[in-house]
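Example A, followed by Example B.
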Amino acid sequence: MSSEQPTPPPPPDTPGTPDAPDTAGTPDTRPSVSRPDALSPAALADARRHQPVRGLVGLAFVVPVTVLVSAAAGGALHSLVVLGPITTFALPIMAMIAFWWEDWPGTRFPRPWSGLYDTALVVAGGTALAVLGQLVVNGSDLVGVFAPGPAHPGLDPAANSLAGSIFTLVLQLTLVCERRPLGRLDPVPAGLAAVGLCWALGLLAWLALVRSDAVESESYGAWFTSIGAWQMFFWVALRGWPFARIDRTWPRLLLGNVAVIACGWAGYLLTGHVLDWPGGRITATAGTAIGCILLVAMLFEAWPAIRLAPAPGRTVAVLIAVTLTVLLTWLLPKLAHALGVPHAREWSWSTHVMLNALSTAVILHVAVWKRWPVPTAPSGPMS
């Protein structure tokens, strides 16, 4: 009989280890992005070893894609008008593939074909949903989706709040609600049901509040984007902390949902009614925060914060994201002006750059393409 003693488990605050299991002896079914161990010990060591080089290599993918989506389709304004809504409608499809299907059907193929296959599915699905959005907002005018003009009203800005609210609902269901109750289904029907449910709820809310003129479309979109920023803050920047520490499922879900909605509402009230910001500026600021959090916590895996203990590490990661948000919120409207975007649309273009172009590029590179061609440790879609 061996005299070797078993190695005790690491304390809860060890970086990269779970703070609290859902139920003792029961596998944690939460999506990897919302688990306290979103970076496993092996993935954490891998990130410490390869960052920031891996993130810098990723910028070679992220930056060109961001530029192409932001300004390559006939200039900055035309890219905003045409590609902005289509990209926003595609975001739920990308979330479904990355966080519900775990990159299926691309997993049937070796890299890079898996990334190409999934990207084509995102483009096709986003285009189909944009056509559906056009049917809701402007009727059956397909020309308006791809070549909007005076005779063919387009999706921008009429459908932006609809598309953005649906994506926020998808993230709420995926991250905050931990895919419950649809997560009990097989991945493919669960993902399809999630997108369908969020589309139905988002459409009903939009029709009841925006189409009825009860709420301005710009304010409606600003409120949902504010909620999206807090989703990213708690579930990406902080990797589920502090809610992941709650053992019991329903108190964890209830507290998480209440906190995110309350923080989103408070942020909207503070900026809109105290600071008197217009809805476009609120959306641009929250959208920039979302993009910066994804850049810091997803592309660079919170480097250099991952080299610190959990508490100071979380603080450093948040401070870096906030600093980037302040800088880009100031810089992007000036860049929009230099690119000939009308003054009234400068905030909208800033939102397009960060929320549509950059966020899409980061999620595609990390969660769909799995950082190809850079090898990574297997640790789920957020690695």
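Example B, a separate protein, is given below in the same form.
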Amino acid sequence: MKGYIFDLDGTVYLGERMIEGAAEAIRSLRDRGDKVVFLSNKPIAPRSSYAEKLTKMGIPTSIDDVLNSSLIVARYLQKHVQPGQQVYVVGEQPIIDELQAHGIPLTTDGTNPDYVVLSWDRQFHYDTLNLVFQAALRGAKIIASNPDSTCPLEDGQLPDTGTFIAALEAATGRPIDLVVGKPSLIAAEAAVEHLGLQAEHCYMIGDRLETDIKMGNDAGMSSVLVLTGVGTKEMAERVPYRPRHIISSIKEVVAL
């Protein structure tokens, strides 16, 4: 039995279009007894929406089959936030809802939080950057949901959380405290634990070298780059975290 951890955007689908062969490939893996989980860095939609989207595309999926960076942030904070501490969120409603569902003490006052969750926010503006910058100077721990600089779509890409991280790090002159989504081992451990397998028995399949492939390699998984999203063969040759396998698309994963 093997475990397959699939990225979503750029791997299973692009925007609202499923990548050819995705449903058939995942059905084949499940039919032969392998385990599948979906792991997305995208924090701007609830996990239930990913499950519904995949199911409508012909890939039956429950909410428990989906892990995303919002859930991983929530679980991390559950373990680390102390009584009396508060968390300020830069992000959209889905990540706020996930944190609230896990009992994380949130504050709308960003002047002196203990933690700042920095996530993808399509209403991000200068005042937000300054608020987080001042909080960081006062000692707040800055935790990012994901480091992706862009998010792939059918017709291009959009700036993602990584652009906000870069702006804050340029202002403070130092790295943020933690990224919990891919490529962190926190995300890898969440996926492996969900599958109930050892990392060496798992494949990490994704389109981003700096997140999917790096995490797979760091965690001891077999990393698989698909060429349907951001990553290319040429890019793979220039980075230290090279994929174990390169395939044209998800439809070839069954033959690995």
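On Example B: The first strand starts at residue 3 and ends at 6.
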